[in-house]
From TrEMBL:
Protein name, entry field: Spermidine synthase
Residue intervals of the PABS domain: 297-559
One of the Pfam families matching this protein, by short name: Spermine_synth
This protein's UniProt keywords: Membrane, Polyamine biosynthesis, Transferase, Transmembrane, Transmembrane helix
Record bears the keyword Transmembrane: yes
Catalytic residues identified in the record: 473
UniProt organism field: Haloferax prahovense (strain DSM 18310 / JCM 13924 / TL6)
Family: Belongs to the spermidine/spermine synthase family.
MF term (GO), any: transferase activity
Transmembrane segments annotated in the record for this chain: 6-29, 41-62, 74-96, 108-132, 182-201, 207-228, 277-294
Taxon lineage: Archaea, Methanobacteriati, Methanobacteriota, Stenosarchaea group, Halobacteria
InterPro entries named among the record's database cross-references: PABS (IPR030374), SAM-dependent_MTases_sf (IPR029063)
GO process annotations (BP): polyamine biosynthetic process
Length: 611
């Protein structure tokens, strides 16, 4: 194979690699912005739109780059991408890790958080035009294209033309394909590979933080391979001066060789004309990223730990609480974070001074803390059990509750339980985890329990069972993935599967703290056919000062009239607190004008809460 053919194959390989990285960067930023700000659909749509807009701007300006130094400009582009992509990633994380003064408009933060997408898209826009122009110079007569590629390309082309010819009038063209068509084809292949490998390998296998460094490493390696391959070793390490023609090309010209070959050789050398400084920067970046990727587990854990600790502390008044992440893991469906929080005594409640407790977060939402784990489940289970009969004839459905704690509370009443949770890995680990074991007491072994690993919405679509009590022990609506569990369709399925006197129970955000979310939620359950609601707070003396504080608000939903909590069937827990629950009244589910319910096919993003 001639050197020119090797050059062509190298350019096509580089096209594949840079396209792979470019598309994968787009998905990394989309997912990162989703994690930071919530709203999967919103973040992905805006990120893709900004990316392609910036890509077009970069491509449009690429013609203004020096045509005599195409390779040098390509090298600079790859080095800048290798530096800018991780820096932009860390910028977005930093914006969510520091306390930003309230005087700074939210629109400014929104704009700054999306600048990395614009920068990466703009730089990526240079790549394809530069590669196309270099390919055209190397492949003037088409003979440089590897035979296997020409053969494969011709067969694919014939097949596609035949298929297109069934609907359109086509005219077969003979001869060489343009550099644009060949490079563009490889670009599309690389983009597809980037999407598939990111979704199936990088993100689930490594996580977001290592993935951004893997991609930046590939950009750095692509830059070094390009310069090493197209450069002339006699002038290594690439001085700023323009290189002279190689001996081979000079001899060819002296003996009447093809002037085009000599010019092509000169262009090949000039393509690698870069500064020593930029080369050193590229080497340092590549070596650094290689080290991060080699130790990706340590890097991921440490960087994410720093971010999470700062984010948790920012949820409280400055200096009021110190957080220490003790462990974290990612299942197929959620990020599980355990941490200790210590009250420093500088906050509004001096009774918390020096107090430390262990907590659990699932994604961005706090799921469990030692101080209120029991009271939460008392509110979820022991209060609404006042509305149904205890015993095996009573059927209860628990959606979520993978920590098994709600099951333990239900076991006290001897009811029959169907338990549905999507995350089988989390459920399995919670069985033997000492942190959960303190509260669930091996409830997974309850003899009247039937557990199904499945999506709650799909389970309700497929089952014919009816239930006296449905408990929704699900995370808060913080991202698009949870919209289904807060949709009219889901609540309608819950209502359909209630027995004649059945009720559904869910925790909910306070209308005072989250008014827009509350309105969307109420209109959603109303549209699903629930006509009556009963709300109550669970209270607990969290700081041992003799006064109880509000812990969690719950809603009991019913499609008709139901008895009071403090009736003849009240549980022991409710009877002991009759002064608190005796005032809880059933009310008609209100309807807020101008607030649309949340539907699977027409989502209302006001139901999402940015925690």
């Amino acid at each position: 194979m001639s050197n020119t053919r090797i050059d062509t194959a190298t350019l096509l390989t580089l096209t594949f690699v840079v396209s792979f990285c470019s598309f994968a960067y787009e998905f990394v930023y989309s997912e990162l912005l989703t994690v930071m700000y919530g709203g999967t659909v919103t973040q992905y749509v805006i990120t893709v739109g900004l990316y392609f807009f910036s890509l077009g701007i970069g491509a449009a300006l690429s013609d203004d780059l020096d045509g005599a130094n195409l390779g040098g400009n390509f090298f600079r582009t790859e080095v800048l991408l290798a530096a800018a992509a991780p820096a932009g990633f860390l910028l977005i994380v930093g914006l969510n890790s520091v306390r930003i003064p309230q005087a700074v408009p939210a629109e400014v933060i929104w704009t700054v958080a999306r600048l990395p997408v614009v920068v990466v898209g703009f730089l990526s826009g240079f790549e394809l035009p530069l590669l196309t122009r270099m390919f055209d110079e190397l492949d003037d007569d088409g003979s440089a294209t590897p035979s296997w590629l020409r053969t494969a390309g011709a067969r694919i082309h014939d097949f596609v033309v035949a298929a297109v010819g069934t609907l359109w009038t086509v005219e077969r063209t003979e001869g060489r394909r343009s550099g644009l068509s060949v490079i563009l084809a490889m670009d599309y292949v690389g983009g597809l590979a980037g999407a598939v490998v990111y979704a199936r390998v990088l993100y689930p296998g490594l996580g977001l933080i290592p993935t951004i460094f893997v991609l930046a490493l590939l950009n750095g390696v692509a830059a070094l391979v390009f310069v090493a391959h197209f450069g002339e070793w006699s002038w290594w390490p690439f001085s700023d001066a323009a290189p002279s023609a190689s001996p081979a090309s000079s001899a060819s010209a002296a003996h009447g060789g093809n002037a085009t070959d000599s010019a092509r050789a000169d262009r090949s050398l000039s393509a690698a004309r870069v500064s020593k400084t930029l080369l050193v920067v590229c080497l340092l970046l590549t070596a650094t990223y290689a080290g991060v990727v080699a130790k990706h587990d340590v890097a991921d854990e440490r960087l994410s730990q720093l971010y999470l600790e700062q984010q948790i502390e920012n949820e409280y008044p400055p200096g009021a609480m110190r957080a220490t992440v003790t462990s974290q893991e990612t299942t197929a469906y959620q990020h599980v974070i355990r941490y200790n929080r210590t009250w420093t005594g500088t906050g509004p409640n001096p009774h918390f001074d020096g107090r430390t407790e262990q907590c659990l977060r699932l994604g961005a939402a706090v799921q469990l803390c030692e101080s209120w784990a029991d009271s939460y489940h008392r509110g979820l289970v022991d209060v609404p059990m006042s509305l149904v009969e205890p015993g095996p004839e009573t059927k209860v459905l628990v959606v979520g509750g993978g920590d098994w704690i709600a099951i333990d509370h239900l076991r006290e009443y001897g009811v029959t339980v169907d338990h549905v949770d999507l995350d089988g890995e989390f459920m399995r680990d919670a069985k033997t985890d000492p942190f959960f074991g303190r509260w669930h007491d091996d409830a997974h072994e309850y003899d009247r329990l039937n557990t199904t690993v499945a999506d709650g919405y799909r389970y309700l679509q497929e089952t014919n069972e009816t239930y006296d009590l449905v408990l929704l022990d699900v995370p808060g609506a913080t991202d698009d993935d949870l919209l289904t569990l807060y949709s009219t369709e889901f609540y309608r399925s819950v209502r359909t599967h209630l027995s004649e006197d059945g009720v559904a129970v869910t925790w909910g955000y306070s209308p005072d703290a989250y008014p827009e979310h509350h309105k969307a939620f109420v209109n959603t359950v109303g549209a699903a056919g629930f006509t009556q609601e009963l709300s109550y707070w669970v209270r607990e003396d969290l700081d041992d000062d003799g006064e109880t504080e509000r812990v969690e608000q719950f809603y009991v939903l019913a499609p008709g009239d139901r008895p009071r909590l403090t009736g003849d069937g009240a549980t022991r827990y409710v009877r002991a607190r009759e002064e608190r629950y005796g005032s809880a009244e059933w009310h008609a589910v209100p309807h807020y004008r101008g607030v649309r319910e949340n539907s699977i096919f027409h989502p209302n993003y006001d139901i999402l809460v940015d925690t």
